Amino acid sequence: MPAPHVPPPGLPDLLGRDPAPWRALEGANLFLTGGTGFLGCNLLEALFYLKDTLGLNLSLTVLTRDPAAFAKKAPRLATHPALTLWPGDVTDFSPPPGSFTHLIHGAAPAASAHSRQGDEDTLARSRAATARVLDFARRAGAARLLYLSSGAVYGAEAFADGKPAAETASLRPTTAYGQAKAEAEDTLRAEAARAGPGLAIARAFTFLGPWQDLDAGFAVTDFIRAARAGQPIVLHGPPATVRSYLYAPEAAAHLLRLLTLSTPETTCNVGSPQPVTMRELAEAVRTVFAPGVAIKERPGLQPANAYLPECTRAESLGLRATVPLPEALRLTRAFLDRLA
């Protein structure tokens, strides 16, 4: 009998030790796109924990362009007996056989996050992926679909003067990535209204935690990488720029709650409403990872900005951020130390 899955630090408490809230996933057969990335790996961690520790009967199929690369990156996840890796690209994959109860569509066009608005290649790939996933949802008979959208759908205007973006804010994306996500939301919502699968849309904000690529080029990853190497933490933007960070296993728990809702359609922000400036983030990273390193500021010419979610709707569903930033960093360090 396989050994029980060893979850990331903090995950058991975030999911709870009572299986009752997760009974909606009993007997589930899930299909995931984007399941081998940062957030996808945290979703796999949570699902394997529910299966192995709480005794849920569920199985997962994850679409991946390169099964061998994922097996090298995360052998413990890739070899779990509940997991099937299905090769293919999200825009044109051949459907796996059989029926599926739940779909999670988290894949995004590669290298699209910084593309300019109107970039036709990014938009075309996103449209093809959405159409392919919807076609598969119909064929597979899925009852529930969770779409991982992004706070980028709001555009910079929603965060003017440092205010958080509410789910009711107008969508005015300023990047092709945000535009593609907003278009996909509309397409999926229209399909759900035509008696398609029950739909949950999660507008993801910023996360940190296990399986995050420290070479991803984000502020938090740059700070952690430098601190772990004993090098100065360098702020390359305005120190007053504001972000917020939800611990990734808690994000996974929130996403799975959304997946199990019985409502026809739900859209909410998933993130932490607690703001932190880049200077405060650098100081928090230094405290946890390397108290002796220096912090240097190279603010450049761009003005400070904010990227924050309002989480009223999520909190009304019981999805509250409970892991403060210092604890999220401490848990992240524990996970990285385990991999070392």
Q: How is this structure best described in words?
A:
The chain is α/β, with parallel strands linked by helices. It has a domain at 24-208 and 245-273 and 307-324: Rossmann fold, CATH 3.40.50.720. Helices cover 36% and strands 16% of the residues. The protein contains 11 helices and 13 strands. It has helices spanning 11-15, 38-52, 67-73, 75-78, 120-140, 176-193, 219-228, 248-259, 278-289, 312-316, 325-339, and strands spanning 28-33, 58-64, 83-87, 102-105, 144-150, 198-204, 207-208, 233-235, 242-243, 246-247, 265-270, 276-277, 295-297. The strands form 4 sheets. The chain has a 7-stranded parallel β-sheet, with helices on both faces. It has a two-stranded parallel sheet with strand order 7-10. The chain has a two-stranded parallel ribbon with strand order 8-13. The longest helix has 21 residues, at 120-140. The chain is globular and about 55 Å long.
List the defining traits of the structure above.
340 residues, alpha/beta, Rossmann fold, two-stranded parallel sheet, 11 helices, 13 strands, 36% helix, 16% strand, globular
